[in-house]
Amino acid sequence: MPILLDHKQLEKLERRRRTPRRVKGVKSPASPERILRQQLEALWARVLLPATERLKQYAQEGVNAQVIADYLDQVLRQAEFEYGLAADDFLTTWKVSMDRQTRTALMRGLADSLGVDLTALYDDPIIQDVLAVSSLDAAGLITSIPSEYLGQVARSVRDNFTGVPLPEGRSLTEQIQHLGSVSYGRAKLIARDQTKKLNSNLNQARQQSVGITLYIWKTVRDERVVGRPGGLYPQGNKAHGNHYVMEGLYCRWDDSTVYSEDRGETWKKRQAEMPQTHPGQDIQCRCHAAPVVDIDQILKYMEAA
User: Fold this and answer.
1) How far is 269 from 262, CA to CA, in rounded Å?
2) Tens digits of pLDDT across the chain (305 residues)
3) Can you point out the beta strands (E) in the chain?
4) Which pTM was predicted?
5) Which helix (H) or strand (E) holds 253?
6) CA gap 255, 178 in Å, rounded
7) 216-235 b/e (C-beta count within 10 Å ≥ 16 → b)
8) Calpha distance 273→83 (Å, rounded)
9) Which of 9, 40, 100, 157 is least surrounded by CB atoms within 10 angstroms?
10) Which of 62, 43, 283, 36 is nearest to 183 (CA)?
11) SS3 for 2?
């Protein structure tokens, strides 16, 4: 859909074109994450919880390893089928909701900053590619839940029957219960992590498609921000990096290894402790990118549209 602006709206943009303007960043929406998590938890309760209870019963009764192995093989085949069907269904709704909510939030932020209504901004075709790739990544994680969980149970059964001590001195029944709790908890991790990654990727694609090249790194500024002195995670790590030091820094969408302390006048290489990614792309990252709008770029984009 083309962008149609009247004379007054164009005049507003012209008056504001001299200074790059900050736009409120698009945070990861809560409802798609919550719904996906609830769906995955319900799926686990329906498919893998009964298997967990049966396996615990087998362990308590001292059933031989061959019976347990046959049961694991049967459950795995059925669970993989169930998870494959459910993943397609869950992720279709998830993608649509994420796309709609992130698009609306960005357009509202641009309208508030620029003083003109840009809700008619059409989507770049790359958005569909982002949604497709993100869906594949999420589906791979979801469908791996049964094999990962039941594979761990199988190894525990083997260790128990060959005399290898189980972690923390647990009995086989206790170990199965522990593995089940960890597997159930993966629903929350997958839903949160994949939602934040998709939010980050959609924001990057949409912002770049309308000529936005810079953003300001924003953290949630609480005690859970990695790297915050005196916080829960005061030290950064290779998997996540120190996000606390990124607060307020200018960054570039085309290069996630640099930052600026003078609003983009000069650029520095990120230090080793800093993340080498964009906000929301590290595992469980809650940061987001607040776009810096260059009016000239927006006008060029609209002329091309």
Assistant:
1) 14
2) 444 455 565 566 555 555 556 677 788 899 999 999 999 999 999 999 999 999 999 999 999 989 999 999 999 999 999 999 999 999 999 999 999 998 888 888 877 777 666 655 555 678 889 999 999 999 999 999 999 999 999 999 999 999 999 999 999 999 999 999 999 999 999 999 999 999 999 999 888 887 789 999 999 999 999 999 999 999 877 778 899 999 999 999 999 999 999 989 999 999 999 999 999 999 889 999 999 887 777 777 666 66
3) 21-22, 214-218, 250-252, 255-260, 268-269, 288-293
4) 0.84
5) none
6) 42
7) bbbbeeeeebbbbeeeebee
8) 38
9) 100
10) 43
11) coil
Annotated domain spans of the chain? 26-209, 211-305
Contact at 8 Å (CB) between 20 and 113? no
Q: What is the pLDDT of residue 14?
A: 58
Query: What's the token pair of residue 238?
Result: 């290779």
Contact 80, 143 (CB under 8 A): yes
At residue 50, what is the residue type? Answer: P
Q: What angle do CA 96, 101, 107 make, to 5 degrees?
A: 125
Q: What tokens were used for 184?
A: 């159930």
Q: Cα separation of 167 and 171, whole Å? A: 9
Tokens of 148: 């990962």
Distance (Å, rounded) from C-alpha 82 to C-alpha 235? 40
Tokens 């402790």, located at residue: 273
Instruction: List C-alpha distances in Å: 209 to 28, 123, 158, 212, 291.
Output: 19, 8, 54, 7, 12
